[in-house]
Each structure stands twice: as C-alpha cells, then as structure tokens.
Amino acid sequence: xxxxxxxxxxxxxxxxxxxxxxxxxxxxxxxxxxxxxxxxxxxxxxxxxxxxxxxxxxxxxxxxxxxxxxxxxxxxxxxxxxxxxxxxxxxxxxxxxxxxxxxxxxxxxxxxxxxxxxxxxxxxxxxxxxxxxxxxxxxxxxxxxxxxxxxxxxxxxxxxxxxxxxxxxxxxxxxxxxxxxxxxxxxxxxxxxxxxxxxxxxxxxxxxxxxxxxxxxxxxxxxxxxxxxxxxxxxxxxxxxxxxxxxxxxxxxxxxxxxxxxxxxxxxxxxxxxxxxxxxxxxxxxxxxxxxxxxxxxxxxxxxxxxxxxxxxxxxxxxxxxxxxxxxxxxxxxxxxxxxxxxxxx
Length: 346
Description:
By secondary structure, this protein is mainly alpha-helical.
C-alpha cells in the first residue's frame, strides 16, 4: 500500500478528525490533553468498542446483529448467578463466556440456514436473550438451584449482584503503566480481528459474501460456516463487553449494556462499513469508536448536556457519511474523465 492510497483512505480521514477533535477539546479544557486522563476515559466506552469491532465483520457480509446488547446482560447475570452459587469467579466467567457464545451460535445458525433477514432474526433474539437474562434468577429457583448461603436467586432478578471479588474488579481498575487493562485488551482484540479479516480466507470470504453471496456459493466458499463464524465473533465481542461492564460497575445485572445499541452501530457505520455489505475495516471501526468516545467525554467535561451530545453525534455521522459519499462521487468523476481522455488520445 503506497502513501498516496493511505492519505486518501477513510481511516486516515478518521485519524485526522480524531487528532483535531482532541486538540480542539484540549484548547477548551486543557486537562483533556492529559494522556492519562484520555486513556482512563476509555473505560466509559470500552464496551462499545468490544461489541463494535466484530460487528464490523457481520456488516461486511451485508448482515446485522442487534442482539449483542442482550448478550451483554445475559453474560453479566450468568456470571453473577454462577458466582453466588459458590463457584470461583473466573470459572463463573468462563461459563458466562460459553453461554454468550452459544447465543451467537444460535444467531449464526438461523442466519446461515434460513432466508430470513438477519435483522429480523437478531431482533427476535434481542428480546429472547433479554427475557432469559431477566428471568434467569427465578427460573433457576424453580429448577431447584439455590445460592450458597442464600434462600434463593429470585432476589437478584432486578437488584443485581454486588460484592464481586477484588480480583475480578481489578480487570478494569488495573492498568499497565497508565494504560487500563480493557484498552490493552481492545487493541489486542482489534489486531486479531484485523489479521482474520485481511490475512485469511475467512476474511476474504466475508467480503465476497457481502458483494455477491450467490457467486460466493458457486466459488466453493463454505458460506454457512463463514456466516456462523462471523456471528460467533460478534457474540464474543458482546461477551467481552458484558464482562467489562460487570467489572467496571462492580455489579452483575441483566440490563447492563441495554442502551449501547445505537452507539455500537454508529461506530461501525462511521468507521466505514457499508450497511449493504462488501466494505469495512477493523481499523476504521476502532478509530471511529475513539472519535465518538472522546467526543462524548470531552463534551461532558465542558458541561454539554447528554441530549445535546446526541445531536452533535448524529450531525457528525451525517456530515461524515455525506463527505464520504461526495468523495466517492468525485473519485468516479475523475476516473471517468481520465478514461475519456485516454480514449480521445487513442
């Protein structure tokens, strides 16, 4: 990839916007330029990044997964319930991860094996997983499970589970030098997903499915396995987000992450993924997530209300998408003009 291509890429534009945003907010509020404060503020939107990064791969296939926010809550309450039943917190975390991945497998199986729109399938599982998470404490009581040292689990249905071990809380309040553990995990996760997307057959198949699914089938790509893999990765991102939120808020709740759906989708779309499929990058989503996350934190720091922040975020998304579309039209115009010129010379 030459430098000319890099400078014209959407990812470079997002990087420039990110730097400009931090500079402007830093001028308004100098404490915002403190690198330690910037890194610490990522804790407030780490769950958005965890969920958005693999969702990019689903959207590249022209699919969508809106059930991730319910998987976050399902992961959280599962972890808490298994822990209060007397299981080690990290064993409980492993069980919660397994449950979340099974939810992703459920999504992927039905998307891959039916002609139903993925939006409809994941809308259904959004409510199904949320209902399961909310009703799980009472269900376990009915099945005869009892919490260690407790009369029952139903009390946790709405109140949440607190008192989680310090070793688990340290997952989010700990840091390596000044870099919070969740942000390190996000960078590692992004690197792995980027390698999968750009350096493997699996990643190439995702793009092919998004561009032309029928041609992909005839080319010998195991389209069903690839789609199931994409939705499993999306669920994994939601699971990591649910664990992060549980540790950050020191409480396991069925409704954690419930308000994250629109920020997650906004992050992926702003990152350059085409909702119709066939394009998108992990780096673009990462940069867009940082752009939106720091924007929200910076505006809150200078006293802007949450309602106005939503207006600014929406305006930024519309402006960015309009700019991207205009750039694409201009590029096509230049290409056509160059083609005509070469024909005239010939």
